[in-house]
Amino acid sequence: MAETSILLPHAVLTAGDSDAPLYDTAIRIEDDRIAEIGPAAGILAVHPGAEIVDLADCVVMPGMANAHQHGRGLGSTQRGDDDIFLELITAARTERRTRPPSQGAPAPSGSAAMAGLVCAEMLRNGVTCTIQANLYYGGADYEAELRSMLQAYDGSGIRAAVCVGAQDQGFIVYPQIDEADFVAGLPDDLRQALSKVTPSAYAGDAAGTIALMDRLLVDYHDHPRIRLLYGPGGPQWLSDGAFTALADAARGQGVGFHLHCLETRAQQAALRRTYPEGVLAHLDGLGVLGPQTSLAHCVFLTPDDIELAQERGVTLVRNPGSNLRLHNGAAPLAEFLARGARVAMGTDNQALADDEDLLKELRLAQALARSVEWDRPPAPDARQLFAMATVNGVHAAGFGDEAGVLEAGRKADLIAISLGPVRGTYLDPDVSLMDAVIGRAEGRDVRMTMVDGRIVYRDGVLLSMDERELRGKAAVAADASRHEMTPDEQRNLETLRTHLAAHYRDMTSAQR
Hints:
The chain is of the alpha/beta class. The chain has helices spanning 40-46, 76-79, 86-96, 108-124, 142-156, 179-184, 188-194, 206-220, 240-253, 265-274, 279-285, 303-312, 320-325, 333-338, 358-368, 382-389, 391-396, 419-423, 433-440, 467-480, 487-510, and strands spanning 4-12, 22-23, 25-30, 33-39, 51-62, 64-69, 127-132, 159-166, 226-232, 256-261, 293-297, 315-318, 342-345, 414-418, 446-451, 454-458, 461-462.
């Protein structure tokens, strides 16, 4: 694009103080920022040499933010993952950690291909900003793997906050205090296999994690589109000492936190035993909560948890499709909003339709928030959903002062959605444009995606990467990472899952 370009859409939704659309409006882009939004005729007259981007019959709006995903470019069905309880899925990862690092883990180049592929899917679906949560394929060099993924996000042109993972407990079962008794009750051959699971992951202990963050910040602290966050998997997987150390370091490094929180019934039961004062109250005491903190899933937050999240400025990230697919039900979204909490949206690379279509996930979240009770808080309206999909997620990723709304001076992160499919055969003229877009638009209706003033997707074509080459590399990486389990490994996995199911079933039943 030229240094100066002018977008000419049918309408603009700025997500500013009003949800009313702007018509006969142009958006002038200078380099990476929005220079002006105003009457089209006037802007065109003053800038006759500017490049014109014709977006007739499109609505331009802020780019969307996928505030929780894991850099997995393939959907769970494509990966061969069953929609079973999360604790049974992680059992397979536990079994994998009894093998040498080279088995079942792609090389850093494969991790980069997977991250690049999810970027391609998100950009196609109008996502301009994302948070990649903790991810560790289990290779021998976590830093190399993480750096390769950071390079993939950078190369794609997307805006991203990437988490540095951390774990020092809960490798076999949670709560950690149950591990010794749990392992003692296993068959001898399985117990022997699990003895090979080393209590180390990601960059190792808290000191190693902090040192890795320091090294990454040298390269990325002033990057225009990349942020770094600490990303412990969740409170059941990290000790208090490690949390405190990371929180102390985060304040000095100027980075935030993004972690899973109370995603499953089993986690609720385990953490209720571990932190009887309340999970968020405990995390708050460790220094973890604040405006730079976001918590994903949050299915089993208590009213006190929600109140504390609101008081501390924490962003709660809703993941409706993933929660349903993994037997976790629905987070109390209406309660989040009624209590004033900031809420964002994420696909978890496990959306209900096994894609990265955030618009469809928004509608799923809205539908699940509709109560059968007359006296419950209402489901979110279109304006609230719009904020969840845009400015709130951008804030959680650490770019809240730069993007998320369309106004002069902000980064030019925006998308154009075709209004033809939104209108369909007929659209009542009293239906607001925002209601129509939130109620009917899909990711496939995105005509253009712009990040940092650069068009990275237009009319079915990715312009920031070679999509054909990328998909080829991702397919090769996925195939290379497959591991044909031996009969002994398969038997051990099935036995481990049986014992885990009994452990968590007994624990959750005891607390009902």
